[in-house]
Amino acid sequence: MEVDDFEAKTNHFLSWLAFQGVVLSPKMALVDLRSSGRGRGVVATGDFESDELIFSVPRSAVLNLNTVFFGSSSVSDLEFKIRNLASWLALTAIILDESRRQDSKWAPYLAILPRQLHNLTFWSDAELSELQASKVVSKIGKSGAEEFFSRSLAPLGLTDYNIEECHKVASIIMSYAFDIPEENTTVDEKSGDEGEELVSDDEEDEKILLSMIPLADMLNADADRNNARLCCGNKDFEMRSIKNIAAGEEIFNDYGQLPRSDLLRRYGYVSETYALYDVAEIITQEMLSLFMSKEAFQGLNLSPLSQGQLDSRVELAEREGIFDDSYDLSHPGPERPSIPDELLALLYLVLLDDQSLKALYDSDGLPSRSKLATEVVGQVLVTVIQLREKEYATSLEEDETLLSTGNLPHRIAMAVQVRLGEKAVLRAAIKEATTFTGSNKRMRLGGKNNLVGEGKGKRSIEEPTGPKKKGRFR
């Protein structure tokens, strides 16, 4: 029986892992999941108890700057240039260089990395247009990455250098790489819970190293079925079970609470199990510009703000630590509302009459959420969110009909799922906003404005003594 190339590469990789000192539990297997629309995955062939070792990878088998250049007696010109690049560019350069070396230690590993990617970087303009008004399109950063490639990688003199391959490698890094602590920067894993730190991909630690961890990156992710985590020590990285895993179950290492838009952008797929984490983004400047218009809030008896009045309110929002370039609406849950406190507070400040705004300058912080959620704030939010929903070319109901047909091209179907999820969030936020019943006593209704902060006579905000904490809600 002929063994296909996919299986041959898997077997070669498994042999390479053993040679590199990777220890595999006899109760796990690396399997072919192409029949379910995926590549490879790790499956339990026997029962695992919670906190049982699934596999361990020594640091010497992790692909990063230190392991590639380990043992060199002197720093080559290439190494010097690469070490001075940003971490993701340095790892991109390393993988490009190693993939061209016939004697590369990493060849069996590089051979099983995906060749076809569905990250948004590789979508055509027509495919991207199917995302409609989703703000994820503005986060792709393809042209910016190409500038980095041309400025930083081209001078390295890599053989057969081309932009398309750089995009592929950089996207693989974004999808597969981990930020790991440098050796000797973590507590020994034998000293208790503090030593078994979950490997981070948040780049919050000072001494971290962007790395590819063979086999650890073969685990798929599922928000509902996460059953393993990667722990690090000074010598090895261990994938351990976090709950009992029965024989036949797939082993998952979750990405965290990512919306499907980010799943698609970073990893090239979507999953219904992540629908709970979908968000819809409100761009602050787009929203604030509505308050200078006479037409935006017709029927609410709101007079438009001058630029000076708007600036005064933004200044106070910045002082209170609640101003941001954008705000994410989300599905409401036990621990969070659909509309974030910071957005609610910003709208409250914008809608305050000028006398109340002046009083708030010298106050001890913002009111509680229940007082921020005035009836008119809710009405304004409904208008803002409805306008946001109208930016999409199709309705939520039309998208549901499209998906129900089941015959959409793969990328189009994923785009529809993303935009449908965002519209569902917008509907949930509208529903929440309609429940606001707080008093409108301090709101600038019926032309109630005293023009504080108007024009050149704008009142400056005096900073109170002592530091201010972000979101100082009473």
TrEMBL record:
<keyword id="KW-0489">Methyltransferase</keyword>
<protein>
    <submittedName>
        <fullName>SET domain-containing protein</fullName>
    </submittedName>
</protein>
<dbReference type="InterPro" id="IPR050600">
    <property type="entry name" value="SETD3_SETD6_MTase"/>
</dbReference>
<dbReference type="GO" id="GO:0005634">
    <property type="term" value="C:nucleus"/>
</dbReference>
<feature type="domain" description="SET">
    <location>
        <begin position="26"/>
        <end position="256"/>
    </location>
</feature>
<dbReference type="Pfam" id="PF09273">
    <property type="entry name" value="Rubis-subs-bind"/>
</dbReference>
<feature type="compositionally biased region" description="Basic and acidic residues">
    <location>
        <begin position="455"/>
        <end position="466"/>
    </location>
</feature>
<dbReference type="InterPro" id="IPR036464">
    <property type="entry name" value="Rubisco_LSMT_subst-bd_sf"/>
</dbReference>
<feature type="region of interest" description="Disordered">
    <location>
        <begin position="441"/>
        <end position="474"/>
    </location>
</feature>
<dbReference type="InterPro" id="IPR015353">
    <property type="entry name" value="Rubisco_LSMT_subst-bd"/>
</dbReference>
<dbReference type="InterPro" id="IPR046341">
    <property type="entry name" value="SET_dom_sf"/>
</dbReference>
<dbReference type="Pfam" id="PF00856">
    <property type="entry name" value="SET"/>
</dbReference>
<keyword id="KW-0808">Transferase</keyword>
<dbReference type="InterPro" id="IPR001214">
    <property type="entry name" value="SET_dom"/>
</dbReference>
<keyword id="KW-0949">S-adenosyl-L-methionine</keyword>
<dbReference type="GO" id="GO:0032259">
    <property type="term" value="P:methylation"/>
</dbReference>
<dbReference type="GO" id="GO:0016279">
    <property type="term" value="F:protein-lysine N-methyltransferase activity"/>
</dbReference>
